[in-house]
Amino acid sequence: MDRLFEALARFSRGGAPDPAATGDGAATPPADAAPDAALEALLSRLAQLLQDSDATAIEVGRLLAETLDRRPPPPARARLLRRVAAAASGFRFEEALALLSWDAGAPAGGPTP
User: Is the whole-model pTM more than 0.85?
Assistant: First the structure.
C-alpha cells in the first residue's frame, strides 16, 4: 500500500501543469451540478462495491471509464479517476480503493506536489 502512495506522489510531481488548478477560472466553464452529482454517486457506489469485494465493481469500473469519456472532470482528477476505473475493471480492488481514498482527500483542483 505504501508503494502505491509513493507512486502517486511521484506521478503528481512529474505531471504537466494543470490549467484547471491555476484558479483563474478560464480553463473550463462552470459544470452543471447534475452530472457532477451523478459522477459522485457512481464513485460512492464503486467504493462500496470495492469495500465489499463485490465483482460488480468490475462493471462499475467500466461504467466509470465510459462516464469519464462522455464528460471528464478537470484533467488532474480525470487522470486519477481513469486509474481507479482501470484498477477496478482489472480486479485490483485494493488499488482502486486506495486511489479513491486519495481522490477524496485531494484538494479540489487535483493533487499538489
Answer: no
